[in-house]
Backbone:
């Protein structure tokens, strides 16, 4: 299942690809000369350029195209904000400690690995074929060996059922499982302490005094919510609108693994689209995307135990109610278009709906864009309708008006029971209790007011329960209080917007993309190729002088300067390796185009232009070649277009 | 002195400018709805776009133009790395605590403020005019009131001398000053505890166990040093080369103030240019910049108590030895060119040389690019020759080969005293001490070897001191040891490169730039204008339909889409405010160009194009207008060029 194939059908051998990525410095473990820190990676020049290009495309595709309000908010976040958002209490994993060795295990992973190892041992003991799930093997670190021990059939069933639900257990339940199934430290067989929650935020102290605890943000979203009011004003009070942020977030994983897919510091790009909850959350550009087809894996199919996706237009998904609303649907379509622009393989993309227990309690609907890699299907973009949950908690906590106030086109007529007190009599009567009594009266519900009005009419007096004032009962007579039904006219409407949140893990997208564009030529399987689209490729053009003959230098310099001026990144390889070798070194870096400078170039100022994917070449004048590159990089022409326009060249590329 | 004027000679009123920046959401205090956290700021849409444009220009000016190797390294940094770099021990300020109130003061600032207040009080008591130093007043927070108390003349002199040297005192000395001059909590008059060092790094714990302490990096530099070996290999072992990094760094200020100029989380862009220390650190492109004139404030002038700058070409500054070497000089010139491109006012830019005690002990020379603002001269870019200090400490600590090994063009002949041991006799003689004895012999200096060779020749035996082996003296006789002068040929050379480090504080540059481009029209002083160059401006074009007449909508949409496709950011203002008002609102945002859509546009598809700085307009066809904007934004034409080419328009802009 986790075997994944390249576009030419070869199996992606992850260790081969990883060795390429390390060798060519796409990324590497941080602080390696100090032994490294797990879950931290640095990007070298090609990885850094790839990341910058993905971010640039994201900004154009979302922020510029949709007129979003981009903000840059701080990573350091005070305790109170994340207490309110729920992260202090709930952003945690369960961990078990071995009291003897001090080792720490993530509880759910440990239970999973130990039981799986026992099932594997059972199969071995029964002489059955053991299928190796490459995906799971890759993630496993703790259980090194399995023992061939046969289990009772009932136990096998029990383990299998339990493993299917492993994500649903809380700490207490995991603790019970550990006791029940006698799960221990796999290395030493030592007993473990019961699971305790481990908060996944990095804690620190802001300023010199220890009374300002803070955290590194776990997401960029909170900063955007807190700025809502300012942004609404900046947008001249117009709704809907979206804010966006690109920045690092942090997650103090218990024991990170799986390379770039689970790291402690990562780049996110998040959008908060604020929308009026009334009127079905329509989107004014939904028409433009409604015929786009998506692979959907909905909740009910997952509940039935299947992972079969269904192809459906987003228009149909919304109209049938599978996707909750147009705005959510619009963003799912836009996310797909973005991923395809990057070079993601559409056959390795699906949208999986969250199960009810995966979402925040206030969320309406949530779909993850998942990308298939050798690690399995990986959540790379989340797209949730978070309703008004976030703005509401911050508003309740701070009293800040994180809401929209707008004039009603038609004033609203509201019939209601209103209460008037005769302040002259009221003050002297209740003295210091005045405010408490008044507040209690203000808080009376409409139903109760109606009943009290009748009582007052009938008896001339009413009795109200008010805790802490005299006997707990307060008597009020006609003249002191008046309760009448009146009509109130409301000219403004106040509401808390709902939020649709597309949230992108840039590092995960970057890694998955690399797997999707990776392949090798049938005649040279040892040498990898990364077929990034030109807009995304770290470097666009490689300049290759045929040899180190002195006449080539000035031409290389001139072409380089012209490319640079046009904003097209390029590198020169004037090493002594053969042309073919220099090109294939750059295929590994994903450089889409190569220009060769040869003796003919010196004579007539023509150059050859080579395409990475086909290895075909054309030859034309300097101006023609530069123009073609510009059109290719801007996505206005394809290589096929260029090849038809310009004469083919068949000399030179010899290894 | 801290009065600063706009380009039209008006005084920059900081509170007016700050109110504009807050109102138009350039930046604002983070977490304001929670009461804010000092030293943390968020960027709103215009600030965020401005920052992105500065970073983009930086990347083009440095990384692309100089083929630098950009990396993205993590902010989380383990303890050991920053222990080695010296930050754990030395990256600290001194703070005093008031044991009664718990208040914390930065010791040097407190001494400074209290003594300055006393000097001011003395002047008042003497009836002298008190000059208010706006710059210092702005920074002061602790001392609210001064008392008119006359001081002895000797005391005045003493205070003045002390204040001139305030940056040079360490914690003990500050503690002595606090006792000697009876400096207390200005608010409560309470006594303070002696100063203790406060490390300015944010501390945290990486992973679930408390034995991996870490910090948020105080600079991006360390990550680049640690990657040196990998980058050298990526660069095919070619020297010199530069790495570059753009990212957030952190500094846990004791009590931050002065807005964006002293914050706890900030964006940096740093270059580490690695160069061979032999041959005078020449730079192959120095010729291109040598005639550029810089305003220099050198060390000797500062020592004489003056701040008079001298204009000098960088060629002369290097040839006279004022700037240590060509590479350092080259970067100073490139920094100046970058700042001017951004729109920095050259008359408010100077390069100040560090005093010997300001630099790290291993640094050779250091110059700061300082920008003049209403807060005074602010260090915005540092440019230091750090010699081989950083690579050496990490190499010594880890043993990693953070150095260059290259073949020598001419093999080096080295005459030296070599020692040979007869291993057959040596092993049995020293048994378990063998290795210790051998190591001690290996470590003998050339001088000592020469002397021992003579002794051995003369006496047939020698005696060597070796701690821990037998009596501490070891006797060796001819036959067991041989010491001879021989010639060794060295084919490779190994050296630790020196590092030139230009280091940019993006937030400080951004704020200073805003002050430099801020002005207002003589006829409308209340309304500010931010004259960013087009490449840097947050939004390039404002689209203004004359009214909300339905015929304008499609035209606005079409022009908007065309601009977007050309990558030119734009916003539509279709509010009901007058054209003039809408334009002046956008002058505040620094939008350089405006397109008006009017009834004439509907008829003949012509539009007016307005220039922010002159408020002049031209009118031409859609294609002509779009082409002009593209040329203006790319910096290929100025407004003067466009105005000469296209017919002027004089209607419409009426308030």
Residues:
């Amino acid at each position: 299942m986790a075997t994944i194939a390249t576009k030419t059908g070869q199996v992606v051998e992850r260790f081969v690809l990883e060795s390429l990525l390390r060798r060519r410095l796409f990324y590497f473990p941080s602080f390696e000369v100090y032994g490294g820190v797990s879950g931290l990676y640095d990007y070298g020049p090609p990885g850094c350029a790839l990341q910058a290009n993905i971010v640039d495309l994201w900004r154009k595709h979302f922020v510029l195209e949709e007129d979003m309000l981009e903000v840059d908010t701080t990573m350091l976040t005070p305790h109170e904000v994340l207490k309110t958002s729920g992260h202090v209490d709930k952003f945690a994993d369960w961990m078990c400690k071995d009291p003897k060795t001090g080792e720490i295990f993530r509880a759910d992973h440990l239970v999973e690995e130990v039981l799986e190892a026992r099932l594997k041992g059972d199969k071995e003991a029964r002489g059955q074929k053991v299928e190796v799930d490459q995906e799971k093997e890759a993630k496993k670190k703790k259980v090194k060996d399995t023992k061939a021990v046969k289990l009772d059939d009932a136990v096998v069933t029990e383990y299998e059922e339990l493993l299917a639900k492993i994500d649903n257990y809380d700490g207490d339940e995991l603790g019970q499982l550990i006791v029940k199934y006698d799960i221990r430290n796999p290395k030493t067989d030592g007993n473990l302490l019961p699971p305790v929650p481990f908060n996944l935020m990095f804690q620190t102290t802001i300023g010199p005094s220890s009374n300002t605890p803070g955290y590194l943000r776990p997401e960029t979203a909170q900063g955007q919510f807190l700025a809502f009011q300012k942004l609404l004003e900046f947008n001249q009070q117009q709704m809907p609108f979206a804010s966006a942020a690109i920045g690092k977030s942090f997650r103090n994983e218990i024991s990170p693994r799986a390379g770039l897919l689970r790291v402690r510091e990562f780049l996110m790009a998040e959008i908060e689209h604020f929308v009026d909850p009334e009127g079905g959350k329509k989107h004014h550009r939904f028409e433009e995307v409604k015929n786009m087809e998506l692979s959907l894996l909905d909740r009910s199919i997952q509940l039935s135990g299947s992972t079969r996706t269904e192809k459906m237009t987003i228009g149909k998904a919304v109209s049938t109610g599978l996707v909750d609303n147009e705005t959510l649907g619009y963003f799912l379509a836009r996310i797909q278009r973005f991923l395809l622009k990057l070079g993601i393989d559409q056959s390795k993309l699906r949208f999986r709906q969250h199960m009810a227990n995966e979402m925040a309690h206030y969320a309406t609907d949530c779909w993850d864009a998942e990308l298939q890699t050798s690690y399995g299907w990986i959540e790379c973009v989340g797209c949730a309708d978070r309703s008004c949950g976030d703005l509401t908690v911050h508003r309740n906590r701070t009293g800040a008006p994180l809401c929209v106030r707008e004039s009603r086109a038609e004033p609203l007529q509201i019939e209601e029971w209103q209460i008037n007190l005769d302040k002259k009599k009221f003050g002297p009567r209740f003295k210091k209790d005045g405010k408490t009594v008044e507040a209690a009266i203000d808080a009376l519900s409409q139903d109760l007011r109606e009943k009290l009005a009748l009582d007052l009419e009938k008896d001339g007096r009413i009795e109200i329960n008010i805790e802490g004032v005299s006997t707990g009962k307060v008597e009020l007579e006609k003249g002191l209080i008046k309760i009448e039904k009146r009509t109130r006219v409301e000219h403004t409407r106040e509401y808390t917007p709902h939020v649709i949140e597309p949230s992108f893990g840039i590092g995960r997208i970057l890694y998955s993309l690399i797997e999707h564009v990776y392949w090798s030529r049938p005649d040279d399987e040892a040498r990898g190729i990364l077929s990034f689209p030109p807009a995304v490729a770290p470097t666009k053009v490689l300049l290759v002088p045929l040899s180190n003959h002195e006449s080539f230098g000035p031409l290389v310099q001139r072409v380089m300067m012209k490319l640079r001026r046009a904003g097209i990144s390029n590198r020169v390889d004037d090493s002594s390796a053969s042309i073919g070798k220099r090109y294939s070194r750059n295929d590994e870096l994903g450089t889409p185009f190569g220009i060769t400078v040869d003796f003919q170039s010196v004579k007539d100022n023509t150059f050859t232009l080579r395409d990475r994917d086909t290895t075909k070449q054309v030859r034309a004048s300097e101006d023609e070649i530069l123009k073609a590159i510009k059109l290719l990089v801007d996505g206005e022409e394809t290589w096929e277009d260029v090849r038809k326009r310009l004469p083919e060249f068949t000399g030179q590329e010899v290894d």
Q: What stands out?
A: The radius of gyration of chain B is 32 Å. Residues 3 and 570 of chain B are 35 Å apart (CA to CA).
